[in-house]
Amino acid sequence: MVEELAARVKKSAGSVALVGEPQRYSGLPIECIADLRPGLGPLGGIEAALASARAELNLVVACDMPDVETSWLVRLLEEAESSGTLCVASRDAGGALHPLCAVYHRDSLAKIQSALDAGRLRTQEVLWELEPVVLESDRTFWNVNTPEEWEAWQAREHANAGNQLKHAR
What we know:
CATH superfamily: Spore Coat Polysaccharide Biosynthesis Protein SpsA, Chain A
Structural class: alpha/beta
Distance between the termini: 30 Å
Number of strands: 6
Number of helices: 6
Radius of gyration: 16 Å
Order of helices and strands: HEEHEHEEHHEH
Shape: globular
Strand content: 15-25%
Number of domains: 1
Largest sheet: 4 strands, mixed
């Protein structure tokens, strides 16, 4: 799942890196950026990505979101480029806001570091401080973190594929 999502990010943004413990991901053919402050969760990962100074606009996607399509990632990047905002985030069809399916301008780094310095780790709270543009998707983005969630996602995908086959006949 990580490699498939990394391929989508690379196709959308031109490059890809995984943020996390390099030893843990050494078996993957993906560059890995270490957290600057290990143990601080997703916001610490966003800090590491922005501090790496790889790009002005940084597409951040959680590696547990198998439903995110390349076309959606491209749309996020296009909006970030045209809007000039610090952040463009996704809201899915179910109404869930996804700060880990978003584009962060490198200029948002100072606000993220300030939040981390103050011990504020809630990604959604810090997201609102960046005054994001929120793009509404007509899809629901699943987070797949457990074997049970993986099985449920696969069952749903299998059912969707069967329904699409019926409609194609």
